[in-house]
Amino acid sequence: MRRLSRLAVATLTCALTVGTVQAAEVNVYSARKDHLLKPVLDAFSHKTGIKVNLLSASEDQLLERLKSEGKDSPADLFVTTDVAHLHAARVAGVLQPVTSKAIETAIPAAYRDPQGYWTGLSARSRVVFYAKDRVKPSEITTYEDLADPKWKGRICVRSSSSTYNQSLLAGLIAVNGPTKAEAWAKGVADNMARKPQGGDRDQISAVAAGQCDIAIANTYYYGGMLTSTKEAEREAAAKVGIAFPNQQGRGAHMNVAGAGVTASAKNRGEAVQLLEFMAGPEAQALFAQANNEFPVRPGVAASPVVAAWGVFKAEDINVAMLGENRAEAIRIFDRVGWR
Amino acid sequence: MLLRPQTACRPPNAWVLTISVLAGLVSLPVLAVVANLAAPSLDIWRHLAATVLPAYVGNSLLLMLGVGLGVAVGGVGAAWLVTMCRFPGSRGLEWALLLPMAMPAYVVAYTYTGLLDFAGPVQGALRLLGGWASARDYWFPEIRSLGGAVTVMTLVLYPYVYILARTAFLEQSVCVLEASRTLGRTPWQAFVGVALPLARPAIAAGVALALMETLNDFGTVQYFAVDTFATGIYRTWMGMGQPAVAAQLGAMLMLFVLVLIVVERLSRGAARAHHTTPRYRSLPRIRLRRWRAFLAFVFCAAPVAFGFAIPAITLAAWSSGSETDVAAFVALAGNSLILATVTGGLAVLVALVLAFGRRLHPTLFLAVLLRLTSLGYAIPGGVIAVGILVPLTALDREIAAFARQHLGLGVGLLMTGSVGALVYAYLVRFLAVAANTVEASLDKVTPNMEAAARTLGLSPLATLRRVHAPIMRGSLLSAALLVFVDVMKELPATLIIRPFNFDTLATRTFTLASDERLADAALPALAIVAAGLAPVVLLSRAIARSRPGDHS
Amino acid sequence: MTEGLKIEGLSHFYGTRAVVRDVSLHVAPGELVCLLGPSGCGKTTTLRLAAGLETARHGRVVLNNRIVSGDGRHVPPEGRHVGFLFQDYALFPHLDVRANVEFGIRHRPPPERHARALDMLEQVGMADYAKSWPHQLSGGQQQRVALARALAPAPGLMLLDEPFSGLDRRLRDQIRDETLGVLKRNRVATMMVTHDPEEAMAMADRIAIMRDGRVVQMGRPATLYDAPADAFVAAFFGEVNTLAAIVRDQNVDTPLGRFPATGTPDGAVVQVVVRPEAITPHPSADGVAMVRAVRPLGAVTQVLLELPQPDGSPLDLRCRLSGAGIPAEGERVAISIDRALVFAPPLTG
């Protein structure tokens, strides 16, 4: 037994010495697509010499892993595609607040956690897409319009299991209250052209194919289709127009992809450094160009296709609200039969 | 206490201890999932029952009914035709029928939606022919539906039934069949009246495996827009942040599986499917001609075409345009192959030790514990993956705390996020596959053979090595290959438990496909299929040789 | 201490059900002891306890002066050096005949091992089949190979579990004799389980009759036949006539006469057992009995007699005769009784 423990100690010491010899590292749990995040991480490593270790999985599962690993978790930075998960991570106590001048000057307050637990890194809007040949943009000016019976059998939207829909409804709960939000969800569910299925691109394609007249989807999917290498996708996107709702009122629903430093971070300094890099002009440009998202840092140019949509009014609520109302949103979806 | 056998009079035995520890380790994640069963959550339950639960239950039942019927009819029918009949192509079909097993269900789902949706080539050709412009001008069956899910799952899961049914048909005695013929039965009646009941335990085991896979699937049903129990578990756990309710749903699911198993066992009653005559001759094969041969060929070739050939060709066509980083690809394939090989071997070893140990010590406690180990297979992969994290990180944190306190070292988590943890996760998920096969073949070694070896001077362990292992060799190989193929395809647990910067063919396929980069996803997907081919061919040979008296 | 097998006060339970109760017996080297009894009487369990295949709850098993069971010790079967011949032979299907026989002697150097295996196969007349596979052999051949396999390590004790029950009758007699010859030649202590009294009589030096987990009587075959401990034992060896009677003054009165029933309380209803050989009919016109049927069985002839009882109902009796003087059907006969072959209480059954 004693010999065994001595052996274990020797092995451990060995492993640790090897660990200290290595260059600085930062460990990232990410729910973003590899091909979007990788270029940013590579640029960071190239610039700082800090090695980035990446583990990609769904944010729900990564959050469970963070929770069960607790203070011994190897993760330093948690990157998500949606603010709901950043909020959930904060509530679960796996993030820590960061105060950084660089971030505070780079990112508007509406896209950050008030206490600095997380930072939005790129923004997208969930908006309405319409068949150019069958719908006039003036027919649909608000999210509330979607519940109007005149759209009966004409709307395509994905399942309520998608966090994007959950956040959209969470936002409506925040601005209109749960009762009105539920009536709205019921109205939309009644107007659906088909059972919710597929992803956001599928909804835009379905409008192009004539299965429905309007669709709800995130902006960057449309941007991606417009610039797709596949001719069929470009053709489909060309038949569809984009409409930013509530431009006369509160503005279009916004959501952010972002990141937060974990409570357990062993490489806190490197993690903050990476976060600041992601908020910096170089990374912001990469996010904007590679995925057609809206850069959150003022002054960074949007991609040409996004720029062509023009300026629009974005909703001015702190996105943290979206995370808080998520569970309520799911219950509403369940009740109104939006699968 | 978990690790203490209940029979108080017997001293703790090394075997009982070993299998208790092994089985305990494998069932820990299941227990972790079930652990928060007692948590009160009436409010959520009321909400679920009033809204979505009836639909989840209904869809799950319909899905199981459809897949169960599909795999039973397809698997048993094909097994009988290629085993007992001769028709053009029957020899090739013997092994080709196994091929769809190498296909991950989600890949088949991707290819068929790609082929059959509005923008796909099939509807495109139809529009061209009919002169239609939009989806409103004509009707086409919706692939993203319950029917689509049943079809795809049947296509990839029927090989489980096929393998076991074929093995059972091969092992049957000709005498029993001939006896029934002399009693005035036609070949068809002999099949229904004699061969089928004799093969029933094997068929039931195959259908059970297929149904458990159906229940644990989340990706495919999600893709086909069918809300099942698995959907409910995901939504309540992840979306609503209610792990207790998700666990309660999961427990309901497990209970359902257990009830199915028990009902099947009970309905078998006291009838024993042991073969009573030791005499074997080569099976007389009926030569089919003309339209019979044609029908038999179509029946057996259709699943191969739809479950393997069409998706594989589609993948190949898609991948032809994509560029590939060969070195990165080799690393991916290496990761997958090593994990699958190691897990396959380990799963069979554990399954053999468990089954043998239980036979040495047939106590109720061990029987229940061993049943628990197979439940990991029926729980949705993403949920059991989280269940695996719980005991794993708990143990890891204990070690880390110990190292901090007594050694003054910050070791972090040693196991979580290691390749070892991944192998452990696979064992938790797939031990049932190996155990089913191993347990069935353990019956080939009669208790008296065991006793004979013992009285001839062999210890239990030596008996296991020198008697059981060689006699069960074919089945052990089959079990290892089944696990191998499953690990190659495994996704949810790999995604969440793998180390940093670590990818397998399955995770890469998934990442690319979920990104709608199907062309780039096609190559790793094809590689999974290719890696599954060799084991499938080996498997087919092992099965063909399994007929008693055939020595090579 | 003694050579061979000694079992003392052995008991065993399956759950709470006692299957072996306080069994004690001894098998000397070169001796063959049969455990005889109906199915479920605990004889096979006793055999498995001796082999170490079951762990005894109470009592001791001593094998060639070594305690292998009891006193808190349990030597596993592989440490007992016993040979076991199974009812289904349990040959290993993945090994050929020679490899099966060599299985228990694999630690010996190859030349010695081969020689020993061939010698054993020779002894059982299976040397020509050394290269065959078990599934190619008939039942009788498999039995012989199993015997050779069990004997190859020269065990200190042979245990045979219904070794001939799977064989047809003609083959059985032949193989039984051959097996006996091989066992005697190897001078090994042997304990054999059977439910066939004829087989036990033919093979055993001594027989232990078991019922409900107990040894009811143990002794030489002739002793058991001539002096059965009770009606159960008596009835075990072939057909008997059983007469119910009531005890009066330590005696019982039957249609065949009065027999002593010492130590039995008055008024008890008892079974009097009369072997067929005990009854000899003599042709006599005013005899009490009538010959109902005559059935030649080969060496002996079975004669069925009908005897009126006091209450008027007829009593059927069987007797066995050999040689001359066999009465004809319908003839009236007188009866004489060999009282040594009549068993009356206290040996109640």
UniProtKB/TrEMBL annotation, chain A:
Cited InterPro entries? Ferric-bd, SBP
Entry's family note: Belongs to the bacterial solute-binding protein 1 family.
For this UniProt entry, which residues form the secretion signal? 1-23
Protein name, as recorded: Fe(3+) ABC transporter substrate-binding protein
Origin superkingdom: Bacteria
Q: Which SUPFAM superfamilies match?
A: Periplasmic binding protein-like II (SSF53850)
- By its UniProt entry, which Pfam families does this protein fall under? SBP_bac_8
User: What lineage is this protein's organism placed in?
Assistant: Bacteria, Pseudomonadati, Pseudomonadota, Alphaproteobacteria, Rhodospirillales
Asked if the Swiss-Prot or TrEMBL record annotates the protein with the keyword Metal-binding, the reply is: yes
GO CC annotations? outer membrane-bounded periplasmic space
| Entry keyword annotation includes Mitochondrion | no
The molecular function terms of the Gene Ontology recorded here are:
metal ion binding
Which amino acids does the record list as binding Fe cation? Y220, Y221
Q: Which residues form a coiled coil?
A: none
Q: Which UniProt keywords apply?
A: Iron, Metal-binding, Signal
TrEMBL record, chain B:
What keywords does the record list, in alphabetical order?
Answer: Cell membrane, Membrane, Transmembrane, Transmembrane helix, Transport
GO terms classed as biological process: transmembrane transport
Q: Does the keyword Transmembrane apply?
A: yes
Describe the location of the ABC transmembrane type-1 domain by residue ranges: 48-264, 333-539
Domain of life where this protein originates: Bacteria
One Pfam assignment? BPD_transp_1
- Compartment list: Cell membrane
InterPro entries referenced in this protein's UniProt entry, alphabetically: MetI-like, MetI-like_sf
Task: Name the membrane topology term.
Answer: Multi-pass membrane protein
Record field: transmembrane: 12-39, 59-83, 95-113, 146-169, 190-212, 244-263, 293-318, 330-356, 368-395, 407-427, 475-501, 521-544
Please name the CDD domains in this protein's record.
TM_PBP2
Q: Which cellular components does GO assign to this protein?
A: plasma membrane
Listed PANTHER family = IRON UTILIZATION PROTEIN, MOLYBDENUM TRANSPORT SYSTEM PERMEASE PROTEIN MODB
What family does the database annotate? Belongs to the binding-protein-dependent transport system permease family.
Q: What is this protein called?
A: Iron ABC transporter permease
UniProtKB/TrEMBL annotation, chain C:
Residue ranges annotated for the ABC transporter domain, each copy included? 5-237
What keywords would UniProt list here?
Answer: ATP-binding, Cell inner membrane, Cell membrane, Ion transport, Iron, Iron transport, Membrane, Nucleotide-binding, Translocase, Transport
**SUPFAM superfamilies, sorted:** MOP-like (SSF50331), P-loop containing nucleoside triphosphate hydrolases (SSF52540)
Q: What biological processes does GO assign it?
A: quaternary ammonium group transport
Coiled coil spans:
none
Superkingdom assignment: Bacteria
Membrane-spanning ranges: none
Q: Which GO terms describe its molecular function?
A: ABC-type ferric iron transporter activity; ATP binding; ATP hydrolysis activity
Source organism of the structure:
Magnetospirillum aberrantis SpK
Write down the InterPro entries for this protein, in alphabetical order: AAA+_ATPase, ABC_SmlMolc_Importer, ABC_transporter-like_ATP-bd, ABC_transporter-like_CS, ABC_transpr_FbpC, Mo/tungstate-bd_C_term_dom, P-loop_NTPase, Transp-assoc_OB_typ2
Q: Does the keyword Repressor apply?
A: no
Task: Give the record's GO CC terms.
Answer: ATP-binding cassette (ABC) transporter complex
The answer to whether UniProt assigns keyword Ribosomal protein to this entry is no
Q: What is the lineage of its organism?
A: Bacteria, Pseudomonadati, Pseudomonadota, Alphaproteobacteria, Rhodospirillales
Protein name (Swiss-Prot/TrEMBL): ABC transporter ATP-binding protein
